[in-house]
Amino acid sequence: MGGVTAFFYILLSLWVQDAAAIIGFTRSDFAQDFVFGAGTSAYQYEGAVAEDGRSPSFWDTFTHAGKMPDKSTGDIAADGYHKYKEDLKLISETGLEAYRFSISWSRLIPNGRGAVNPKGLEYYNNIIDELVKHGIQIHITLHHVDLPQILEDEYGGWLSSRIIEDFTAYADVCFREFGDRVKYWTTVNEPNIGAIAAYGSGQLPPGRCSDPFGITKCTAGNSSTEPYIAVHTTLLAHASVVKLYREKYKAEQKGVVGINIYSFWSYPLTNSSVDLKATQRAKDFIFGWMLEPLVFGDYPEVMKNIVGSRLPSFTKVQSVLIKDSFDFFGINHYYSLYVNDRPIEIDVRDFNADMSIYYRASRTGPPAGQGAPTNVPSDPKGLQLVLEYLKEAYGNPPLYVHENGLGSANDDLDDTDRVDYLSSYMGSTLDAIRNGVNVRGYFTWAFMDLFELLAGYQSKYGLYRVDFDDVRRPRQPRLSARWYSVFLKKNGSSPLVSGTQEDLTLNTVS
Ligand SMILES: *[C@@H]1O[C@H](CO)[C@@H](O)[C@H](O)[C@H]1NC(C)=O
Ligand SMILES: *[C@@H]1O[C@H](CO)[C@@H](O)[C@H](O)[C@H]1NC(C)=O
Ligand SMILES: *[C@@H]1O[C@H](CO)[C@@H](O)[C@H](O)[C@H]1NC(C)=O
Predict the structure, then answer these.
(1) Fewest CB atoms within 10 A around its CB: which of 42, 286, 368, 501?
(2) pLDDT at site 508
(3) Which InterPro entries has this protein been placed in (predicted)?
(4) Alpha helices of 308-415 — where are they, by DSSP H?
(5) pLDDT tens digits, 441-450
(6) Domain that holds residue 190
(7) Contact 329, 398 (CB under 8 A)
């Protein structure tokens, strides 16, 4: 052991002993009805893409066209379609209080509308029954980057208002079949960043973009207009689903319906007035784009002024329908960025050019250009600032941290960096709650390693490691799973290292 390593070892031992003091909170500091969980999503988890009547979603089309950087597909993914029962046992053993997952629309209704696939229905009923049996709160997302390809082919999916009727009918099936046991529904996962990636840079299905904005090569699209159209349609479809739930199901099922939004915290790079204004503009474009229509009934003024006729507008009737069409917001959060004003010099604009800012991962880093910056450092305070901003700007709505986690190329079981990340972000959630923010739950992303958006199998987020080189996709608990388990089941406050007395044994599934 070299000198530097020995020094770190001593430091680590001290840190572990003193961890309770450093972290300073336990499960008991959160309300009893606050829930801690973890998540997955259908395409990223299930595999079995051509089994038991499932038809392709636009994810399948995208991956099979070789669009992922590692050319991977979700054909098998974590094989959750076959292993869900063991996985739900692991979830229960770990002590998770809630589980967030999504339904594959094309598994449940292979033609996009009409006949329900009995095998798809059975699969989700089995999962739900199993979760009920284990006493785990169920949070379902209806659309997590997973549109039936048949609807993309028929009318262009989220670019057409025809999706509103089909999405509402699909939601109707879900509420009717599962709503007796499921009380927490999210319509769509992060449509704001989703639309930018799907229709601006072409990095997510359906992979549309136009020059010069594509990061992948796109054969069709319009980066100047389509992200705005897709979010507009998504908001209308979401509101239609909420209306359906409130009129037809809410009295009996007593559940809640919300929508999810991608977030990062934006710091001004300098205190110049242009950077301060640019930072507010970034918040209006990232948060306000969805939340101003949902809370106040229309897009932010700054967006209307800058985007002009490329931003669709709401009719009076639509505005009334959308306003207040939520019971909570789900927040996906991973990092913070610095914002630097960038005067617009080009005629052709996309979302980023409309914001006219540069994002930087750090104060000294280079401008990020159009893509998300890489190697973003962890900033737990940023999550607290997001939560407090949403409270102030949007009337203290009920919030769930739907996704928060550490992605890493590192496959290690001893993921002390992830323990550190999760505990510090949970701490900043607690700080926000103590400052009056109405946060109801926290979900780590992800319960296990999955097929990841943008990165395929190159990035691991799991509390459980999945060996994707083994056809059986065995699962092994990482340190982070054991840490979370101690936190939840034993009211533990300290991060732990292997072999300490607070350690718990969690099972492996081969
Ligand atoms: C995108 O749509 C706008 C508005 O219809 C149009 O002016 C522009 O030429 C289109 N761009 C491309 C690349 O098709
Ligand atoms: C900007 O001003 C705030 C408040 O005075 C200060 O905390 C912050 O460090 C300043 N930021 C920069 C980049 O100078
Ligand atoms: C959890 O631990 C904290 C700190 O030691 C303690 O105050 C609290 O009473 C404990 N709660 C339970 C349910 O054991």
Answers:
(1) 501
(2) 80
(3) GH, GH_1_N_CS, Glyco_hydro_1
(4) 316-322, 351-355, 380-393
(5) 999 999 999 9
(6) 6-504
(7) yes
Catalytic residue selected from 46, 130, 152, 190 = 190
**Could you tell me which residues come within 8 angstroms of residue 345 by beta carbon, excluding any fewer than 6 positions away?**
none
**Within-domain flag for 322:** yes
The two structure tokens encoding residue 59 = 């994810």
Q: Is 403 an active-site residue? A: yes
User: pTM for this structure?
Assistant: 0.93
Q: Which residue puts its alpha carbon closest to atom 10 of ligand 3?
A: 28
Residue 393's Cβ-count burial label (10 Å; 0-12, 13-18, 19+) is middle
Asked if the structure places residue 1 within a domain, the reply is no
Catalytic one among 130, 292, 403, 452?
Answer: 403
Three-state secondary structure call for residue 211: coil
- pLDDT, mean of residues 169-178: 98
Nearest C-alpha neighbor of 89 from the set 468, 477, 353: 477
**pLDDT at position 7, please?**
28
The tally of domains found in the chain comes to 1
Pocket test for ligand 3, best of 23, 34, 491, 494 (most atoms within 8 A of CB): 491
Is 28 touching ligand 3 by the criterion CB < 6 Å?
A: yes
8 A C-beta contact, residue 140 and residue 174: yes
From CA 322, how far away is CA 255, in angstroms rounded? 19
Residue at 510 is within a domain? no
